[in-house]
Amino acid sequence: MLPSTKLINQIASKGYNIGSVFRDWVSLMLYALSKEEELYMEVMSRYRNEGEPREADLFAKAFAELQTEMRKENHDVLGGVYMEIVSNWSAKGMGQFFTPVGLCDMMADINIKDDKKPVSVADPACGSGRTLVSSAKRVHSDSWFHGIDADNVCAQMCALNFCFFNMNGYVIHGNTLSMKFYDGWITNGSAIGGAVRQMSEEEVVQYKKKYGSAIQNRQESKQLSLL
To answer: What is the pTM of this model?
Structure first.
């Protein structure tokens, strides 16, 4: 079991549903990185934060452990924590299992032939963003990545991974079959690390107008593809 998973289990043992704890942890990390203090405190208000260790301290420790694990493994560890949580029968509303990292690497190798110039890479059902993270390791650092998923927690995990792996990209919580887009995040890579912010409603609308048709075509072909 991953160290982050053990800490999420420890929070749940204080009387919370483990699925809810995981989703809140993902939101807390995203709000902390995007400096959304009000939203961060709204999530944290669901926890008693009494006794030692407090839930807030365990959430922070889990974030630190996650970063340590990612530096060691250099791949999507967050998705691995999700799948360990899914194995708990009480994790209601969580039931996805993501493509193995090795297969994601192979898909990226098959689809990406030229790493000499920036490209745009899309995954219309991105999950935690594994295939896109694999792609980012094989393309020019100025490339842009597009991840869309109908599950909000998956979209948030993908946005976090874009930030963790210093990627430029858009992540949309939406359905590429019905073309209903709800919200989204923009990430930017830099020499000092990744940054993330939530998109405005207008930015989501403009994104759909600009990229919606191309991404829907990728959904119909069911494959990672260059835009």
So the answer is: 0.91
